[in-house]
Write a structure and sequence with these properties.
Blueprint lengths: L2 H8 L6 H14 L4 H8 L3 H9 L6 H10 L1 H15 L1
Helix pairs in contact: 1-6, 3-4, 5-6
């Protein structure tokens, strides 16, 4: 996945929380991070992480902030997308 894809997702006419969640979970999976590891790192229930990965349920803004705080590569992708948006 590239920043360009996330940029395209974020620039649809209607931004869907599910699209952003799917992109972030793909990033996590590409880095070999499991649902149990995410739950442990973010101090959240495993069921909530499984909902993002497997049930296509969008994450909350608080969860996004926790993920960005915990994982540098996610923070980098989100920042890169915001910089593209400002140009």
């Amino acid at each position: 996945m590239s920043t360009k894809i996330l940029w395209q997702i974020c620039h649809k006419k209607e931004l869907n929380n599910g699209d952003v969640t799917r992109y972030i979970t793909r990033l996590l999976q590409e880095h070999g991070i499991t649902t149990k590891q995410v739950a442990r790192d973010l101090n959240i229930p495993v069921e909530r992480a499984r909902n993002w990965y497997y049930k296509d349920i969008g994450m909350t803004a608080a969860d996004l902030v926790k993920i960005m705080r915990e994982y540098e590569f996610v923070r980098h992708e989100v920042k890169s997308t915001l910089l593209l948006d400002l140009r």
